[in-house]
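Re-run with default settings, no changes from the original entry. Doing this only to confirm the output is reproducible before filing.
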Amino acid sequence: MKIYIITDMEGISGIWRPEQVQKGHPEYEKARRLLCEDVNSAIAGAFDGGATDIVVLDGHGGGDNFILEMLDERATYETVKNSLEVMPSLDGSFNGLMQVGCHAMAGTLNGFLDHTQSSTSWFNFYVNGRKFGEIGQAGAYAGVFGVPVIMITGDKAACEEARSFFGNIELVSVKEGLGRNRAKCISPKLAHKMIHDAAMKAVQHIKTGAFKPFILKPPIEMKLELCRSDYADEYATRPGVQRLDARTVRKMIENPREIYCW
């Protein structure tokens, strides 16, 4: 039973201020430890549920957030080489995808540190007319390989978003946003138990067929609304990208694996 875990930091337990996820800030080092503790909880739960092989992607800000010596030695850890590489080891041999530390898409009310890809340039992102964030994109990418999303952890808004995309999967809400830049959190110790138990339950339920891959059928229309027209100026020069208006560009793709390719 193979499980892939992709991580972010905004939805990690105990993180409730923007400074904690910013590399170079004094609070960031403590946040790295919080990240590793949530990841270890998911790994332990997955193994207790019957997983035999786990790969974890350090997915926040291009990686280099893990403290490797803190992490469960039974799992394997990887990062991406560039912004267009996505979950490098993921293929059809995996049985489920877990997303740990998620945040809600840009524009979500009371979504802690809500954004989609770039908090400075991306305003709204649509796939076939439906607004998408990073949670949905990861699920669509995994769906290409027939791999279902089985668990999400993050703030309340991220969990609600995940439910709207993937239905009855395991969800662990570790905090609730108070506007965008503050959150009220449960204790990390409680969060770790909840994450462990949800991961164990999710893996146990894979064999029952409880989870279905999230499939996007081609042709797939991607529309990206940028925050400013000069951002759209740059995107409009890229291959296959059509300018729709001052701040909006469009691209058609046939394979959901290209959902990150702008």
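The mean pLDDT is 97. The chain is about 25% helix and 25% strand.
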